Amino acid sequence: MGELTHFKDGRPRMVDVTQKPATHRTATAEARVKLTPEAAQALEAGGVGKGDPLAVAQLAGIFGAKKTAELIPLCHPLPLTGVEVRLEFRPEVPEVYITATVRTKAETGVEMEALTACAVAALNVYDMLKASSKALEITDLRLLHKAGGKSGEWRREG
User: Fold this and answer.
1) Is there a catalytic annotation at residue 127?
2) pLDDT tens by residue, 39-89
3) CATH superfamily of the 22-149 domain
4) DSSP string, the chain
């Protein structure tokens, strides 16, 4: 098996994972969309003219996870066995809190798919609410947990 690096002789390449065993892998990521009072009010009022922002963003996040290899140049295309995207409107903050959990049985992990699902869902929340305010902020995109594969389990502390 070759080195597990995206560079060979100073040039980018996709890592060869042929010799790695396919194992069950999972990853969970999160993101937040900080809302302005106007955007929170629009969301609380039941959505916008384009439809329900959270439902559209949930579907977009699932599609984003499935298209990760097309968006991230050196990412392997993976057979995803499960994608769950959750969006929670927290009016008291105000924000939309997003989590995505992605599962596969493959030779490499799904951290990028979980992160992409959150990013795409957050961008769709922005798109759906931008008419009420352009000052929305997408923050805290980060991996929370990964399990499976040679490196085992990892969980963000705090």
Assistant:
1) yes
2) 999 999 876 777 899 999 999 999 999 999 999 988 999 999 999 999 999
3) Molybdopterin cofactor biosynthesis C (MoaC) domain (3.30.70.640)
4) ---S-SEETTEE-----TTSPPEEEEEEEEEEEEPPHHHHHHHHTT-BTTB-HHHHHHHHHHHHHHTHHHHSTTPPP--EEEEEEEEEEETTTTEEEEEEEEEEEESS--HHHHHHHHHHHHHHHHHHHTTT-S--EEEEEEEEEEE-STT--EE---
